[in-house]
Design a protein that fits this description.
The chain is mainly α and about 400 residues long. It has 13 helices and no strands.
Length: about 400
């Protein structure tokens, strides 16, 4: 029996979003080890160690638009290869950091270069993979490709972190760096076995003009992403504050809900449109955050995390589809790069902003404030739904 159209879309999408898996495995593998290594081995204080981790997000945010433009002008396969190259370089610098740990400045310098390389590799690899997938199945399946890319992302982070800890326990940071290097080299070889897709034809809109038109969609994404940022950063401390056990269960429930929503409901965007799906998603996410704010038991907190993950899951592809529809296909990669940069910025800023709110007003206030941010995101999206203009001409 010939494959159904949905099966064919999946079959064409999975081989290229697998490169996103490799990229985010490279992100996840050293994540749990890096703060303690920087603090205990290199002698950095906790705040500087945290800043070292955040350098990757800065590099990712700064390089997202350029990665999208590269996919538009040189093709997605070219962009993915450069992403894998930078991730491989991050592995090399991790190796050097381990070998040079007795030389403070060389060790720290190697870690800094590793974080910057990984950030650039993340933006190029992920953006290139999405555009490659869209090129293989058609722009009408943009939401489906983005959804599978998100599944690959979170699955890689979930698998990469414990594997990184296991390898680090036996072979240290050098083992993690070597694993990343070998995995990326093997993936580079695999890219040659898949047919490239041609860059889209047409003129390219200046990034400044493109940025202005994408910004409202990005603001909606950034505001709704604060729920994830707060849960990822503070749910463990919240459980400790309430003298509860099971914080890790809440994180798992969030991740499972997020992935399941991507797998089960991705087709809803094609059937009902991005804005309608986004509105429903915002309501579910707000309900989850309110439950976290007002709930008085660990069970309610688990449900709140699940609803938050379920709600936020489809916001990214839903608003991405609507943002892409404003522009011609010749700049869709740059649009996606600029749009995605807003979630990078959101996750980078949520930690310190939420930390200040918790310090001044407590945990309940931060969940309620985050619910308010998602409500504001919904308001922005409603405004966009009624004011979005037709596609900009090349």
């Amino acid at each position: 029996m010939p494959p159904t159209p949905d099966n064919e879309v999946t079959r064409r999408t999975l081989p290229v979003v697998a490169f996103t898996f490799v990229v985010y495995f490279s992100v996840g593998a050293p994540l749990a080890l890096l703060p303690t290594y920087a603090h205990l081995q290199l002698g950095l204080n906790a705040s500087i160690a945290g800043l070292l981790v955040s350098l990757q997000y800065v590099a990712t945010f700064a390089s997202r638009p350029s990665a999208g433009r590269m996919a538009d002008t040189h093709g997605p396969q070219f962009t993915v290869r450069w992403g894998l190259f930078f991730c491989a370089a991050s592995g090399i610098f991790l190796l050097l950091a381990a070998l040079l740990k007795h030389s403070f400045w060389l060790g720290v310098g190697s870690l800094v270069l590793s974080r910057f390389a990984l950030g650039v590799g993340e933006s190029m690899g992920s953006t290139g993979s999405i555009m490659w997938g869209i090129g293989r199945v058609g722009s009408e399946y943009t939401a489906r490709v983005i959804s599978w890319n998100g599944v690959a992302t979170y699955l890689a982070l979930a698998i990469g972190a414990p594997i990184g800890v296991l390898i680090g326990a036996h072979w240290g940071f050098a083992g993690v760096g070597a694993l990343i290097l070998l995995l990326c080299i093997a993936s580079l070889a695999v890219t040659t076995q898949l047919a490239p897709t041609a860059p889209p034809k047409g003129q390219h809109i200046p990034l400044g003009k493109l940025f202005l038109r994408v910004t409202p969609y990005g603001i909606g994404l950034a505001l709704s992403g604060m729920g994830f940022g707060v849960i990822a950063t503070f749910i463990t401390l919240y459980f400790v504050h309430r003298n509860w056990e099971g914080a890790a269960i809440s994180l798992s429930i969030y991740g499972i809900s997020f992935v399941c929503a991507r797998l089960v409901f991705a087709g809803a965007i094609e059937r009902h449109g991005g804005f309608r799906v986004a509105f429903a998603s915002f309501i579910v996410e707000i309900a989850g955050l309110l439950l976290l704010g007002f709930g008085n038991t660990p069970g309610l907190a688990h449900v709140g995390c699940g609803l938050t993950g379920l709600g936020f899951s489809l916001v990214f592809p839903a608003l991405a589809v609507e943002a892409a529809d404003v522009f011609p296909t010749s700049v869709r990669g740059a649009v996606l790069g600029v749009y995605t940069a807003f979630i990078d910025l959101s996750l980078f800023l949520t930690g310190p902003v939420a930390g200040v709110i918790i310090h001044l007003y407590g945990y309940k206030a931060v969940f309620l404030a985050t619910a308010g941010a998602v409500l504001l995101a919904m308001s922005v999206s409603i405004w966009l739904a009624f004011t979005a203009k037709p596609t900009i001409e090349d």
